[in-house]
Amino acid sequence: MDNKINIGIVGGGFGSYGLIPAFQLDNRCEISSICTKTSEKAIQVSNQYKIKNYFTNYTEMIKNSNLDVLAIATIPIIQEEIIQLAVANKIHIFCEKPVASCFKNALFLNKIINKNKIKSCIDFPFLEIDEFIKMKQKISSGELGIINECNISWKFCAHHIKHNIVSWKNKKNEGGGLLPMYASHTLSYIEFFFGEISKFLIKKYNDTELSINFITEGKLLINFDLKIDSKDQQHHSISVEGSKETVILETSNALRFSEFYFRRKGEKFRVISSNNTDQRYLIVSKLIKKFINNILYNESIINHSFEKGVRNQFLIQKIDDCLNSHEWNRVN
To answer: 216-238 in b/e burial notation, b at 16+ Cβ within 10 A?
Structure first.
């Protein structure tokens, strides 16, 4: 196409190694501007990816870049401000989860996005992994029979814990913490696989560990164990027990998307992707293609809509509000 979609990126971390290469894989897009915290980082990123304009102030970038899309990879409390600026300037939005620092603010952002008819997309990457899509198909087609139970175990050592880094990832008031940073992924793919969660029971919770039971609207029991300071065990496992067959989707590389495989009766029977590289940008690129189609042709991206981001934030807050409860709690 002659007139490419003009993209601006905010964020020198995942924004540089995740979003930039992902957008550059779509030839309908052109990244014209990058904004990072420091000029040194901005110059380095702009040179590395051959981006014409660089900024250290996102307000200046929005004002001077004539953007069609703003892609954001910052801390949630800053992401809120950037989204509001983008909406005010009629710029479409690609952003990360959690969409805001709290549910109330997420609701407000959703309201102004809808009012101004802005296209938006939330990056829930697990929903774009081939193996997760295959698992969804297995569940929906009835191949596994009646689903009786699901057990999820996700254990790893988070980067900020491993290296004793104090950052926003430790701070709940800025949108960090165990629930928004990590459990939010699982909340997203649980509802992708099985429909909405209706009840939950917290069995254990602290800053680095969560053990919780869910009941879906379809009456399915889901057991979820999350540990983000695990130095011995490193895995991400989703076991779906059906009346015809039990299938386990798992990886020993708990912080990557490229090594999931299915296991049945103790044996691997499908490997779709298998290497050690950080392939997050390839997963994101699949979503970006859908987002651009949404902008150009109004194609649906319902699983990544801002409403799904708000729903995710609602679940996070409901769980957070009930951390001291030892009873079943209703979601709605």
So the answer is: beeebebbbbbbbebeeeeebbb
